[in-house]
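Q: Here's a chain of 330 amino acids. Please give me its 3D structure as tokens.
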Amino acid sequence: MALNASEPGWEESSGADPFFPLSQLESSPAYEEPPLTVWGIALCVSGTLIATENAIVVTTILATPSLRAPVFLLLASLGLADLLAGVTLVLHFLFLFCVKPNDWSELVTSGLLVTSLTASLCSLMGVALDRYLSLSHALTYGSSQSRCRAAILLLVVWVSACMIGAGPAMGWHCLGDPNSCSVARPLTRTYLSLLCGGFLVVVMVTLQLYAGICRVARRHAHAIATQRHSLPAKQSYASKHGSGRGFSRLILVLSVFVGCWMPFSLWGLLGDASSPPLYTYATLVPAAGSSLLNPILYSLRNKDIRKVLIQACCPHRHTQHTHAHYPVDV
């Protein structure tokens, strides 16, 4: 996804685009390989880190037969989407600095990035839905019917994400009409507005699901409080302490979620082709950076996944095995 640099005087006022210099390359009669910049190195390193950590998560889940509860299917989908985002960043680096870029490479990287971000955001919504259902329907959670529903949900998510991401390659781009470009070239303003509008809807639905989680958790806490007189003092303190930690983690997850996705979603609706590219960088980097934080905030916090990773790294370490899965940490 490249930034628009077609505005008259853009080059003189802000200099060459350090991250997406394709527009300057196309205007040159003879192609010269651009020099490697700090932004280019950051692009390659961040893409490699994102791809590596998410590949570990996806491989861990797929290679472990016991990790087949709905929550693990959703975490695998989230990891796969973020893995695709990391690979796309590396491909974009290669197209910019290692081979001569062209319209085809720009459309491919744009489509892959849109697909990965869409699937990642929808998977995050699926994780929130899973957490809500696991609290409100604890008795039926984890059944084969629940796994089937999760698989159908993920199929819909990925088919939809691929269809949305195919938009630029299918002709919904501004390469032939620079005046229709958005803040993220080669996406048109109409396409990006619809995309960011959909992102905002998903963000709002996810926040509503977490609000429902808080309501259910409060009801559970109230039920426990009514029986507190029958609990030992130490157990009562531990229950309250664990609840406090759970809400702190929830606040952290929501803060990162909103901070990563809200800026670009709003900027994509409000900005246009004449907007400063720096603003697009400032909003797009957190959205891509969420792919780096998601494995830490979601997958690696799960006790079952951590056990598998510890056993893989330290096979002689003694750990207690349990068949109970705890999909929620709040």
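Q: Can you summarize the key feature?
A: DSSP finds ten helices and no strands in the chain.
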